[in-house]
Amino acid sequence: MSFKLIxxxxxxxxxxxxxxxxxxxxxxxxxxxxxxxxxxxxxxxEEVKACGAxxxxxxxxxLYLRPGRxxxxxxxxxxxxMSWDGPIMTDSGGYQIFxxxxxxxxxxxxxxxxxxxxxxxHFLTAEDIIEFQSIxxxxxxxxxxxxxxxxxxxxxxxDSLRTTFDWAKRSKAAKMKNGRQSAHQxxxxxxQGSTYRDLRKCAAEEIVGVGFxxxxxxxxxxxxxxxxxxxxxEHTADLLPEDKIRYLMxxxxxxxxxxxxxxxxxxxxCVVPTRNGRNGQAFTWDGELQLRNAPFKYDFRPIDERCDCxxxxxxxxxxxxxxxxxxxxxxxxxxxxxxxxxxxxxxxxSRKAIIENRFQKFREEFEGRYNNRG
Amino acid sequence: MSFKLIxxxxxxxxxxxxxxxxxxxxxxxxxxxxxxxxxxxxxxxEEVKACGAxxxxxxxxxLYLRPGRxxxxxxxxxxxxMSWDGPIMTDSGGYQIFxxxxxxxxxxxxxxxxxxxxxxxHFLTAEDIIEFQSIxxxxxxxxxxxxxxxxxxxxxxxDSLRTTFDWAKRSKAAKMKNGRQSAHQxxxxxxQGSTYRDLRKCAAEEIVGVGFxxxxxxxxxxxxxxxxxxxxxEHTADLLPEDKIRYLMxxxxxxxxxxxxxxxxxxxxCVVPTRNGRNGQAFTWDGELQLRNAPFKYDFRPIDERCDCxxxxxxxxxxxxxxxxxxxxxxxxxxxxxxxxxxxxxxxxSRKAIIENRFQKFREEFEGRYNNRG
Lengths: 374, 374
What we know:
2 copies of one chain form a homodimer.
Chain A: E1 3-8, E2 15-21, E3 24-28, E4 30-33, H1 45-50, E5 56-59, H2 60-74, H3 78-82, E6 88-91, H4 94-99, E7 102-107, E8 110-114, E9 121-125, H5 126-136, E10 140-141, H6 154-178, E11 186-191, H7 197-210, E12 214-217, H8 226-238, E13 245-248, H9 254-262, E14 267-270, H10 272-277, E15 281-284, E16 287-290, H11 310-314, H12 317-325, H13 329-355, H14 359-370
Parallel strand pairs in A: 4-14, 5-6, 6-10, 10-11, 11-12, 12-13, 13-14
Antiparallel strand pairs in A: 1-2, 2-3, 7-8, 8-9, 15-16
Helix pairs in contact in A: 2-5, 5-6, 6-7, 8-9, 9-14, 12-13, 13-14
């Protein structure tokens, strides 16, 4: 068993656990920074590690296009390539194929698409994507799936579920066929079903029936209202086996993550800390700050006085505002670094609170302060 | 005396020394990385320090426009503002006023110009620029000067020398008038005179006659042929007192720096390692590499196998090429970092060779290998 549940209160849903991977243990709940193109944007692997991140996420679709299979094969996988010796998850890139690539078409157990980079034509089966992730050597592979945007019609959601289920079975078979080469890699199943509770139930039964090392909830945070996102997350998490890790794809803000922990989620990945960081938005224990704004002109405090990240230990809001004003790259770096540190720390502290059976109190206090009601 | 000559061979011109500043000693010869806007582009202050850089350079004109005087005053100077506790030189920005600002006009002991950022009108006297540098709290201040591009007519060069000499005297007087506030700051004199040997001689006599803590050779590397640059540098260096530090402004490539050391130069500043680094050009002991080029696609060696900088210890040419291909910021960082480290190391090793009386042999070997003749 790759996942071990360490603590679960009887009356609430938050959980603490440990996931064993080929590159080390991951304590859960855990926030996983996203490095789509084999780099957490603006940061070095050493900086991400120094932030306390246990695991990172990259994207098979993007890496298939650039740098491409041959370079990753010759570099003996992604860990070597990007100089990250901890666990790596690889998203299949299904979401990106459907959102970025042009002229995509589902056929023959896979998807035909034209690259968003150069318009070149590609056809990849569910099996191809598993094989590519085995070349990447990621610790956790994701199967190809179809992720619909919100709102989706019931019939689209049903069609999409059939495709996703077919690909899930093919992916598992491809992994088994890979034998020893993929033996150290975990494969998660993805539960789709849009906002239809009965379709989510049906998808969970089917995917869990096939049997995977962990389960991902996909197709949330795709445009639906926040309440509905949490409702669907909780509903779907409730359908999953307790002894397997649960991964909520692409979520989210600090408040969303604490909400999802309360709904029984163990893993999160999200581009928000780096994407918003590059835009000057910092996450702090006192809420969100837009550091480009005028009030920070003469503010010689660190981004967050409670934070001991590298950026907060050395630089002020006024300096970072100057860096953004002058389009200096160090500004993007410092806020991205702080945000990753903050996300990792928030989930670490949440884990401690779970184990000490005071998570709901912690969450309430955090939210009060974060929303400036504290 | 702020400068002490440690070693000088009788038959050659290379020198080793120590410059004492308010923020620590600088061993010379020394390469000074340029952080125009209070950041060495793409790098943190800690990274620049870890590269071994003893001193950095910023630019008064740029900092006067952004972040502006009030922020720098409130932050109690540049060292605090940018979190750099070593020595800082500040260029007056004369060169930038004449090259970047529009509608500049010399009048009333100063220069009127419109900002290259927003077109706003400004008038700064030589005294204003000293006063601003005293607010910056730099360890070495430079006076306002006029730097002509090559080629310059003799009459333009003569006019320009008169202006520069007038500003030099006013700058020194302004510094003296500042009293205790600037007592810990060194002020250098700048020798101009374009490519006219007699004007250089005249300028050196006048400027040295006024008396400064060190002497800068300006108006080289402004478009003239390389041979002429070295001829003028050597000619001008020969005119300077042996017991004062000599600073060659804005130079240069590794080969230019070793040449200038042979001509008796102690200090260099140059944007080349970072500017070219952001373009994918790496400096190595085996010459220059353009890492975006196809031959590096499958090259899993570090940028330079002889280098132990952070980039070379952790990342490969193939990975860095991928980062440039995908416009990922980490690529700019890694090559900038390596280049700064290489420049600092090259001059450090040159210093050791000078002290051990084998600099010319070292230079010859370096050049052979650098030009791939070694």
